[in-house]
Amino acid sequence: MMERLESWKLAIERLRSAEPVDWAEAGRLIAEIARMSTDVTLRQAAEQALPVLRQTVDNDDRSVMLAAQRRLGVVLDVVHGLTAPRFGRRNATPKKLSSEDRARKVLGLPLAVQLTCDDINQAYRRAAKGMHPDRGGSAEAFIDLAAARDLLIHPGAHKDAWERSDEIS
What we know:
Elements: H1 2-17, H2 23-36, H3 40-56, H4 62-83, H5 99-107, H6 117-131, H7 139-153, H8 159-168
């Protein structure tokens, strides 16, 4: 599909750059795009350009030619948008958090800040108020909260238990 888009792009650019534009050829190309394109936006742009391009074949009216050139430009813009490289990592899977970072997230603590035991306990108490089973929270969430607190206070001692509970859920 990408090769076809590239060939359409080159053909449209060639047609637009020619001094006397061959409107019959442009009409055939745009009809092919309207018929064969799998992209909805490109197909719609081509279908909207076809009547104007067909009208331009035997017409010397300057306003009709300008309208046809604009429609050809719209189709070219859509093709260019489909063939342009996409930068960034939009479809990349998010990086897995470490067990300590997951524990910080559960407690609502910042990820890159040095924490004291008091900071961890305060965050635990604040989060436990809403997650306690007696207050309408779930027992699993409360257990995870306690495990997160224990992992942050004693990093080596409870690490395995936190990772096992994460694998189970």
